[in-house]
Design a protein that fits this description.
Keywords: Membrane, Transmembrane, Transmembrane helix. With 101 residues, the protein is mainly α. Helix content is 78%, strand content 0%. Helix 1 packs across helix 2 and helix 2 packs across helix 3.
Length: 101
Amino acid sequence: MRALFWLLDTAISLYVWALIIAAVLSLLLNFNVLDSRNRFVWAVSDFFYRVTEPVLRPIRRRMPDLGGVDLSPLVLILLLSALRILLAEIQVGLLRSGVGW
């Protein structure tokens, strides 16, 4: 049971990092710091876009238009942080009750 909670926590943590990297990469591409014609840069940015976009798209649809400012990664990071806290509380509750250990 501990391994499952560890795996979920690690997966959420890695996804948060993927969101941060995708957001920074998007900014660097938009300000022409990185050249999207470079094959490696394109491949990395495409990977992070494909990993994060399916989850960010529904959040973007529900958020108001802020004039080009995309806060959906921040909203998702906050939701994932709340999920990590919830999972930790469930794990502590199970540990105290002695279930599954």
